[in-house]
Specification:
The chain contains 24 helices and two strands. It is 73% helix and 1% strand.
Length: 535
């Protein structure tokens, strides 16, 4: 039983951190690249995709939801920063847990991170496709709905198209984009008639296989494969690609806030607490739990620790600075979005683009769509990057097949095999699964990782108080305890179904651990050898 909680020695971790050669990861990232990776992962999903979903839970209180999620991330981020500076290795929370809580807990968190990053990339690939289809519409190019979305989302989009046809014929007096138009449109979609549903199936035009309509999000699959190829070529190339995209999307976000502020209708925010938060603080908390996905990213920076030039100094800077920048931008965009559109009418798939389009600001909507594509591209890149580095760390410890997951290409210095596996799987999942369901699965996995990192900080302060810490989490144990409370609360708000999904996922992981990992663990083998020598 003690072997299950065997900890990886800090000396062994530091030896790995200083290893060099063609079979190790290349150290090529500075503070700017690391901060850009953090911003690249954070800005995109929340603003261009998940904000629409959050508005339907919190109303205008979405602004407070972003603050609440940001606080939970902030507390966890300070704990991550200490670990990242102290243990500059790929693996993030998995590696930190291995050094403090033992192998079994490390495996659980590593398996959990697999859910976070891979499903995160799948969610973003689906969101990317939504904006790609919007961009094609700008040029009057029609992409078949059954090839642009999974079946359920495609049918919903077809229903929306039918509703617009009905608006044009039955409510021609209403001005497209007006408050009354948007309200009536929402009523039609919320309660479709049998005739509307039949017409929606015609518009969808999906082929039938074994008696069931099929649908596949082809753009989501294609973009996942393209990003995977970029990651396999090298970390320098990936970082440059990401930095370029980050500049584009931050400019677009600032453009949205500046232009959108001119079209804000203060009445949409409400004149009292009930109107501002239609479902009370409970709704704000639920939205915070769902839009928490928007903040996934700063922790992905820690997975690149083995590729940072000066990890002890630069990793804390990259994580904390990117979190601060993104929180401020999120609050600004949430205020503009809920001020422009009544929260009941906020579009889920492309909320910002649709808000400007409904105001007949077509040119602004086109710019937003381009920014959304750029933003979601960088998010996907960092998600897949984080996933491959966690698998690399686990395989290096023997918990996964090393010849596949930890093999580094001698020229590109990347774990190319596991990179292609992860990218293709993420693309397939994103092409056939509704974005809402994937996003909720990702959130609960990430929150669990944050809770474990906060616990680990307190444990290591007790078990190894004299270890050099280039960055120290302030106000311990207050900060990690608040991180546990804030993120634990958000986990509760996700509901029992997401807990069930998490438990099933972890159960599958434990089967893998006890059938493969325990037999190949390097730490376990080292301890068994040590005990044998002493005996």
């Amino acid at each position: 039983m003690s072997m299950l909680f065997a900890r990886k020695p800090m000396d062994a971790l530091m030896a790995e951190a200083h290893a060099e050669g063609e079979h190790t990861l290349e150290r090529a990232l500075g503070p700017f690249q690391l901060t850009a990776l953090g911003v690249g992962a954070v800005i995109g999903a929340g603003i261009f995709v998940m904000a629409g979903l959050g508005a339907h839970y919190a109303g205008p209180g979405l602004m407070l939801s972003f603050i609440l999620s940001g606080l939970g991330c902030g507390f966890a981020g300070l704990c991550y920063a200490e670990f990242a500076a102290m243990i500059p290795l790929a693996g993030s929370a998995y590696t930190y847990a291995y050094a403090t809580l033992g192998e079994l807990i490390a495996w659980i968190i590593g398996w959990d991170l697999t859910l976070e990053y891979a499903m995160g990339a799948s969610t973003v690939s689906s969101g990317w496709s939504n904006n790609f289809v919007e961009l094609l519409n700008v040029f009057h190019l029609k992409f078949p709905l059954w090839l642009a979305y999974d079946h359920w989302t495609g049918l919903r989009k077809a229903t929306e198209e039918v509703a617009r046809e009905m608006m044009a014929s039955n409510f021609s007096s209403l001005v497209p984009g007006s408050q009354d138009y948007i309200k009536q449109m929402s009523n039609l979609i919320a309660a479709p008639t049998a005739e509307m549903t039949a017409r929606a199936h015609q518009v969808l035009g999906a082929p039938v296989l074994f008696g069931h309509e099929i649908g596949i999000n082809l753009p989501a699959l294609i973009i996942a494969i393209i990003i995977t190829t970029v990651l396999a070529i090298g970390i320098k190339e990936s970082a440059k690609f990401n930095a370029t995209i980050v500049v584009v999307k931050v400019v677009v976000v600032l453009f949205v806030i500046g232009l959108g502020a001119k079209y804000v209708h203060p009445g949409n925010w409400g004149s009292n607490w009930h109107e501002f938060a239609p479902f009370g603080f409970s709704g704000i908390g639920a939205a915070a739990a769902y839009i928490f996905f928007a903040y996934i990213g700063f922790d992905a920076v820690s997975t690149t620790a083995q590729e940072a030039k000066n990890p002890q100094r630069d990793l804390p800077i990259g994580m904390i600075l990117s979190l601060l920048i993104c929180t401020l931008l999120y609050i600004g965009v949430a205020a503009v979005l809920t001020g422009m559109v009544p929260w009941q009418s906020v579009n889920i798939e492309a909320p910002l683009a649709r808000a400007f389009l409904d105001r007949e600001l077509t040119w602004a909507s086109d710019i937003i769509v381009v920014g959304a594509l750029a933003g979601l591209t960088s998010v996907m890149l960092v998600m897949l990057l984080g996933q491959t580095r966690v698998l690399y760390a686990m395989a290096s410890d023997g918990l996964l097949p090393k010849k596949f997951f930890a093999e580094v290409h001698p020229r590109f210095r990347t774990p190319f095999k596991n990179t292609f596996l992860v990218g293709i799987l993420a693309g397939v999942v994103g092409s056939v699964t509704p974005i809402d369901d994937i996003g909720k699965m990702v959130n609960i996995g990430t929150l669990l990782a944050f809770v474990i990192v906060c616990i680990s900080i307190m444990v290591l302060r007790k078990t190894d108080p004299d270890r050099a810490r280039p960055f120290r989490t302030p106000l311990v144990p207050f900060v990690p305890i608040m991180g546990i409370v804030a993120n634990g609360y958000l986990m509760i708000k996700l509901g029992w179904l997401n807990w069930a999904r998490l438990i099933v996922w972890l159960a599958i992981g434990l089967v893998v651990y006890f059938t493969y990992s325990v037999k190949h663990s390097k730490v376990r083998a080292r301890l068994q050898k040590s005990v044998g020598v002493k005996g």
